[in-house]
């Protein structure tokens, strides 16, 4: 038996050796043979020294400082898939740590995208939520060397799905081409399986992607490598020199300052206000039950007590506020403020110590109207009807709070002010508002507006600054005079807050974040007549 076993083992060994030799011969006969020798460097080229060349940059660990793609997938899971999917991804995190970067990205993509509807999830998370998180993680050093002018062309490579990185790279950084896998779909739903690297390279004309319109543009190509080994063949075949950053080098990188963004980040959507790292996401799940109870307590305090008692009690419950008073302005009957959240009129009324103020809105949810401790009424965007309604409210109530922007803006920018309030013929008290949240945003362009009060009040310590500015005198002078007053108010509020004025409108915001103009059609009665009403702000 022993001789027979030894003979069989010897034959098996010889067969394996023959197969290995054949494999070596085939490999030698058909080498990958990079187009040119590639030099791997540990130093980034100077920005001024590479003008006119081409840069191939890996997104994860190259352009981005973070050594993990987990927060980006978690954001998509939370915004597009809900709490259950996000919890599953969080529970799988210890197992993901045992995998290599490329395998972990595929696993996270499977959990995050499987079953999501393409036209809703990818549009919202990729275009509306992720750019803010990704921009905050861009390395200023790599941006200067690979993306910023005077470099002629930049090609970014990523192992993450194209739906996640394309809007950020093309629209906000202005890169020329993106090489990234697509997530397979069927019937308009994602299957959670990404293309292989070889499929991506076969689908693209890589030489044309690298060179652009000029043929032979690869002679001046340098690369910035990153995490994982995906698309290494692209770097080896096309890059003359490749910078491979180490983990210690990434720790020394600095975030790209906001003022240097190629395109300013003015609009973004989604409920999550923090970077969803594993630790921060776990803290959020632990906080949610307590946050719901805290939100209910805050609402009850708002509704049951007068401002003189509710304001100090709400401060004890974590709602911080700072008032910069102006007694002359606080006694006026018409207040115009920038729009940060649905609580803006409440903070103005509380800071002025007046419950006789009413809030004019371009539509809020029925739940928000029911929970408001001050009267609210909706504007219809019919100028004559809205002007008459505001006049009636000014006569019946003690005063009126309006938000001329017509919709909220989370970033330090002011949208164009509608001049309708200036046509009422009353002197206007400008109010500059600044708000900050740490966990959840209380506004949304494409989500369910009824949850806005809940998410806003669930924050551990939401903060507001209310600054009453000097009154602006209004004289009846027609539309041009009203427009001048609106522009003056926008300028004063921006100056007080350190914000930037823009000419953007509600329509611009909704076209970008929700794919519509902020207007919906509501059918009434059996005749099918439709009434145009505004979407929730």
From TrEMBL:
GO cellular component terms attached to this protein's record: membrane
Subcellular location: Membrane
GO molecular function terms listed in the Swiss-Prot or TrEMBL record: acyltransferase activity
Xref: InterPro entries: HAD_RAM2/GPAT1-8 (IPR056462), Plipid/glycerol_acylTrfase (IPR002123)
Main location per the UniProt record: membrane
Protein topology in the membrane: Multi-pass membrane protein
All residue ranges annotated as the Phospholipid/glycerol acyltransferase domain in the record: 333-436
CDD domains: LPLAT
Keywords: Acyltransferase, Membrane, Transferase, Transmembrane, Transmembrane helix
Family affiliation: Belongs to the GPAT/DAPAT family.
Protein name, UniProt field: Glycerol-3-phosphate acyltransferase 1
């Amino acid at each position: 038996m022993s001789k027979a076993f030894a003979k069989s083992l010897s034959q098996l060994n010889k067969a394996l050796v023959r197969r290995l030799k054949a494999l070596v011969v085939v490999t030698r006969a058909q080498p990958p043979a990079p187009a040119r020798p590639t030099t791997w460097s540990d130093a980034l080229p100077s920005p001024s020294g590479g003008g006119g060349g081409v840069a191939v940059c890996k997104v994860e660990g190259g352009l981005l400082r973070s050594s993990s793609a987990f927060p980006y997938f978690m954001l998509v899971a939370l915004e597009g898939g809900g709490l259950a999917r996000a919890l599953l991804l969080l529970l799988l995190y210890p197992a993901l740590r045992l995998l290599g970067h490329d395998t972990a990205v595929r696993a996270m993509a499977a959990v995050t995208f499987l079953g999501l509807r393409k036209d809703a999830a990818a549009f919202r998370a990729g275009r509306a939520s992720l750019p803010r998180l990704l921009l905050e993680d861009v390395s200023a050093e790599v941006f200067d060397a690979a993306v910023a002018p005077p470099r002629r062309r930049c090609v970014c490579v990523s192992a993450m799905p194209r739906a996640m990185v394309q809007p950020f790279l093309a629209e906000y950084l202005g890169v020329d081409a993106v090489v990234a896998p697509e997530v397979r779909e069927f019937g308009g739903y994602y299957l959670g399986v990404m293309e292989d690297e070889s499929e991506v390279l076969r689908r693209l004309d890589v030489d044309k992607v690298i060179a652009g319109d000029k043929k032979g543009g690869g002679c001046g190509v340098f690369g910035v490598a990153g995490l994982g080994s995906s698309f290494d063949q692209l770097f080896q075949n096309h890059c003359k020199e490749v910078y491979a950053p180490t983990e210690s080098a990434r720790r020394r990188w600095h975030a790209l300052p906001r003022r240097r963004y190629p395109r300013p980040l003015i609009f973004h959507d989604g409920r999550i206000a923090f970077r969803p790292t594993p630790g921060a996401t776990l803290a959020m799940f632990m906080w949610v039950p307590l946050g719901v109870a805290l939100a209910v307590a805050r609402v009850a305090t708002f509704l049951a007590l007068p401002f003189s008692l509710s304001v100090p009690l709400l401060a004890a419950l974590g709602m911080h506020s700072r008032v910069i008073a102006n007694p002359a302005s606080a006694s006026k009957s018409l207040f115009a403020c920038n729009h940060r959240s649905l609580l803006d009129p409440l903070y103005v009324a509380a800071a002025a110590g007046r419950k006789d103020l009413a809030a004019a809105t371009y539509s809020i949810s029925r739940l928000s109207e029911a929970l408001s401790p001050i009267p609210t009424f909706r504007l219809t965007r019919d100028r004559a009807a809205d002007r008459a309604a505001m006049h009636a409210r000014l006569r019946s109530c003690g005063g009126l709070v309006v938000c001329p922007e017509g919709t909220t803006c989370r970033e330090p920018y002011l949208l164009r002010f509608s001049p309708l309030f200036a046509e009422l013929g009353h002197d206007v008290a400008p109010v500059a508002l600044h708000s900050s949240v740490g966990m959840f945003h209380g506004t949304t362009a494409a989500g369910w507006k009824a949850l806005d009060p809940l998410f806003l009040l669930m924050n551990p310590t939401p903060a507001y600054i209310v600054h009453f500015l000097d009154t602006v005198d209004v004289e009846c002078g027609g539309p041009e005079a009203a427009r001048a007053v609106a522009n003056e108010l926008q300028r004063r509020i921006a100056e007080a807050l350190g914000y930037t004025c823009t000419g953007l409108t509600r329509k611009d915001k909704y076209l970008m974040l929700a794919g519509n103009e902020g207007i919906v059609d509501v059918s009434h009665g059996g005749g099918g007549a439709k009434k145009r009403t505004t979407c929730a702000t």
